[in-house]
Amino acid sequence: MVVPYESISFADVQTEATRLATGDTSTVDAWFAGTDISHPVVVWDPDRTDLVTAPIIFLYDYWKARVPEGEVGMRASDLAPYDLVPALGYIMLLDILDGGRDFRYRLFGSKIAEIAKFDSTGLRISETKAHPLMKAFFSTVYEAVLQKRTPIYTEHNPPPNLTIATWHRVVLPLHDGSGTITKFLVGNVPTPYHEPEVRTAKMFD
Q1: At 98, is the secondary structure helix, strand, or coil?
Q2: Distance between CA atoms of residues 135 and 62, nearest Å
Q3: Is 18 a domain residue?
Q4: pTM of the predicted model as reported, rounded to 2 decimal places
Q5: What does the pLDDT look like over 105-139, one tens digit per residue?
Q6: pLDDT tens-digit readout, 163-177
Q7: Does residue 168 fall inside a structural domain?
Q8: What is the tally of structural domains in the chain?
């Protein structure tokens, strides 16, 4: 089945985020069907062994070590930028707006911007220069994490004009101390472009 990504609305994102939170990627896959962009890989609550790049492993370990027992994630107030030096350039920090109707990049890593050829710092996802399908996918992933309150790891290939990299992403929820998730700490690291069957084998060997 092919679902035209041009017609994806906020209601679609909400619905598909709920599905994605259960592990159902069928409609997200349908968004990618018929395009030149490979279907993404999605792993909920990843193990450390699922992660394949050093900056993402560092961020995951950093976050996990700071999650108080019984809480949904790390407290945003515990985030110390000077602790994140090993992942600098590959970090995105997003604010959650209007209960998840949109997300704003408080920080868009310099190395990410160099590869993507645009800097989204200060912009909402809806305002960025990303491909419309990527905007829908990113919004769905972030909304799903907001609903499920659990980290997620994804791999995706960009549109054909940016096939210099395959992107590895981990999304880590940050809360305000009362349990309300207010931000996401995200690691986003490119590796040499490769097709999905190679990507999957690499992840799960």
Answers
A1: helix
A2: 27
A3: no
A4: 0.88
A5: 999 999 999 888 899 999 999 899 888 888 899 99
A6: 567 899 999 999 999
A7: yes
A8: 1
